[in-house]
Amino acid sequence: MTDGERLTAILAQYAIPCEKVSFRGKLDALAAGLGIQTQGRLMGDVLDDIAAKTGVERDNRLYGTFIRKLYEGVTSGEDATLSGNPLTCENALAGKPLGALHVYGKSTQNGVPTPTAPVPILSAGDSGTVTVTVSDGANDSQTLTLTLQTPNALPGIPVTSGGNYTDENGQRWVCDEMDLARGVYLQRVTKFKLTSSMRWTKVGNKVDRYFYTFNGINTAGVLCTHFSAAINGETVGGIATSNGTTIGFAYAEKGTTTVSDFEQFLNENDVLVYTALAAPVETALSAAEIAAYKALTTYAPTTVISASGVSGLAATYRRRKAAE
């Protein structure tokens, strides 16, 4: 590769247009793109300013040596990690594969449920897939997509502490996660239906609250279609938890129902609960999903990564060292 070809590659990474074919013409275009004056100046002085702007030390007065060093620094770059949704990856190198990529689940309810007014729980991937889009950020003129299979959706529950993801608003989540670099799906949320066959215990000072102890869960966060942790546990419709594995559902006013009444309610309604698992369960992603992930590459100078319905993303990408 000639020094002129190296300059062409450097200009491409900085997204600086250039119609010149001569070495000096390309060097002038690079300097102008970096805000450096070239008119009437010696090449050595221009190179000194480029070195200062790009943070690449000019330890050899030969211009060819500096251009090769600048080329290596600009095209090899450094790792940067972002989280959120969407992710705007600035100063990205062109054509570089993504490093780590994590997709975090999310579940929501549009309202506060009660036994007589349930509210469905909606999760990312309820349609059976989650699509991650990688674009150049310029009206999405260049776009790559990654379609991830979610036969059991990609749920996530908000929690006040702990969790495995914190979004840009500071909300913590316990959520299922797709770790593409490792090629695994990490299930952290379990979903189950309350049934009359469970051995219910009636306890409550102001309400008829029905408790059951579940195996393998952690009640740090609970969502339910017919009851809500946002409601006090001594108020009808509220949820109370104990010992990390026991959940109580405030079904009715104190002394107005029996265990049989609650069991009949469960038989007549699909009462669904989402809560955290005590320990995550890992399963392998498909070979097709891993291959599609490995085919994702970045666009220069900006790459935008997004997915709809999820609590967030995290990614590592390769970027050039920003000019000072």
Quick structural summary:
It contains six helices and 20 strands. The chain is an alpha+beta fold and 324 residues long.
How many H/I helical runs? 6
CA(first)-CA(last) distance: 27 Å
Counting helices, strands and paired strands, the structural category is: alpha+beta
Largest sheet: 7 strands, antiparallel
Q: Describe the global form.
A: elongated
The neighbouring-strand order within the major sheet is 1-20-3-11-12-18-15
Series of H and E elements: HHHHEEEEEEEEEEEEEEEEEHEHEE
Q: What share of residues is helical?
A: 10-25%
Contiguous low-pLDDT stretches (5 residues minimum) are none
Radius of gyration: 28 Å
Overall mean pLDDT stands at: 92
Let me know the number of strands.
20
Strand portion, in percent? 25-35%
Fold and architecture overview:
The protein has 324 residues and is of the alpha+beta class. 20% of the residues lie in helices and 35% in strands. The protein is built from 6 helices and 20 strands. The strands form 5 sheets. The protein has a 7-stranded antiparallel β-sheet with strand order 1-20-3-11-12-18-15. A 4-stranded antiparallel β-sheet has the order 2-19-6-7. A hairpin with a 3-residue loop joins strand 13 and strand 14. Helix 1 runs parallel beside helix 2. The longest helix is centred in the N-terminal third of the chain and has 14 residues. The model has no long low-confidence stretch (mean pLDDT 92).
